[in-house]
Specification:
The protein has helices at 2-23, 49-59, 64-71, 85-104, 165-172, 175-190; strands at 42-47, 73-82, 108-114, 124-131, 136-146, 150-161. It is an alpha+beta fold and 191 residues long.
Length: 191
């Protein structure tokens, strides 16, 4: 009986330490709680290391490059919040504060896009990167206030090589990061 208690205690310490290490990772960002508008969508996805490693094993045979990328990712968090008049001000303020906190914490604002449309709110997108050791990326945060009534926040945490970031965007279908590749290609052609 005592052995069972010791095993439980050891397991709790190991898993608690692993969870704390993940939360304390330099690229991890706590977005806080969001209040979705009544009757609007709210989606929260948290992919933790065990699930990502499992996915890496599954794709390793057919897509070794994707498997290598997945092994470098420690976690992915995605929040999608439906926005309307009742929560627009608080959601916008929260995203503005997240962006300010990232900048104050030394995250690099990699891209900002504010799309203006005739008579309607356009998209407001910001992409932040936290660099890690040896030219790696410890974290990426994408924040989007969509003119179509939703807010999207994405946090990718890991030890990602800079050249892998577009692959991350393509594999996880993160449009603002995929567009960075297109913008860079256009800039290269213009030079």
């Amino acid at each position: 009986m005592k052995l069972t208690h010791i095993r439980s205690l050891v397991a709790a310490i190991v898993f608690g330490t692993a969870a704390s290490a993940h939360a304390a990772h330099a690229g991890a960002v706590d977005f806080g709680a969001f209040a979705p508008a009544a009757g609007k969508q709210y989606v929260e996805v948290n992919l933790k290391p065990a699930l990502i490693k499992f996915a890496a094993k599954i794709v390793a045979v057919d897509e070794p490059e994707a498997a290598e990328l997945l092994r470098s990712i420690h976690g992915v968090r995605v929040h999608v919040v439906g926005v309307e008049d009742s929560n627009r001000e608080s959601t916008t303020a929260q995203i503005t504060q997240i962006r300010a906190d990232l900048a104050a914490a030394g995250w690099e604002n990699m891209a900002t896009v504010r799309e203006a449309t005739d008579g309607a709110d356009g998209d407001d997108v910001a992409v932040f990167v936290k660099t890690g050791p040896e030219d790696s990326i410890a974290g990426v945060v994408v924040t989007v206030m969509s003119g179509k009534g939703e807010a999207v926040l994405v946090n990718i945490v890991g030890n990602i090589k800079a050249e892998q970031i577009v692959t991350v965007a393509e594999k996880l279908d993160i449009k603002p990061l995929r567009e960075l590749k297109l913008k860079q290609a256009k800039a290269d052609k213009a030079v």
